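Think of the structure tokens as a kind of shorthand, similar to the way a musician reads notation: each symbol stands for something richer, in this case the local conformation of the backbone. In the example below we present two proteins back to back. Begin with the first one, reading the sequence and then the tokens, and try to describe in your own words what changes along the chain.
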Amino acid sequence: MSDLKHPGEDDLIFTQFIVLLKEFAKTTGISLKDQRMDSTMFMSNIKKAGRLSLAFDVLIKTVKAIPEAVK
């Protein structure tokens, strides 16, 4: 590995992760060139779900804060 010859130039942990990823892909026959569309939208969906959850929580607390006489 170039990390041992030139320490500080590469991230040893990330490099090892990539080596293991490629070996796993080769062993399982998975192509790293193909990317699923749902995996590219994963982070976006987490953000949307978080915002929706926050809006729901605020709405629930607001409704509970309304006095019974007003409901």
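Once you have a description of the first chain, move to the second and do the same.
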Amino acid sequence: MSGRTHVAVVIAAIVYFMIGSVWYTVLSGAWLEGIGKTKDQLQSEAGTTPLPYIVGFVAILVLCYALAWLMARTGAAGAAAGAKLGITVALLVVGAAIALNYGFESRPVSLWLINVGYAAVGLTVAGAIIGRMKRPT
């Protein structure tokens, strides 16, 4: 991958992560209900460790690198093609993987919609960013 691709992936990951902070702030009540915990329970379990945020950002970075790799392999170029591939990966890969786990964990569909919705928005935007920045000038 070129240096320009690495920059695009890092920018896309940062934007994706920032979308998550807004997404889960807006949907915090429904998300907490979906996982069956209160805000106080989460805070007492996690304390003040930044580990969930670090793990989350690294996971998003991996997703963005995988998306960039798929874009290169499929010839997807430009923001629209990147966005299209991003939402496809979010719904068909991430969504299916989460559904598999949630089915056995008896998680509510509302939680699946929240989490997969975030992946769909995040990967769509990330794909658009990567596709736009990779476009030849």
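Compare your description with these statements about the second chain. Helices lie at 3-26, 28-35, 39-46, 51-74, 79-105, 109-134.
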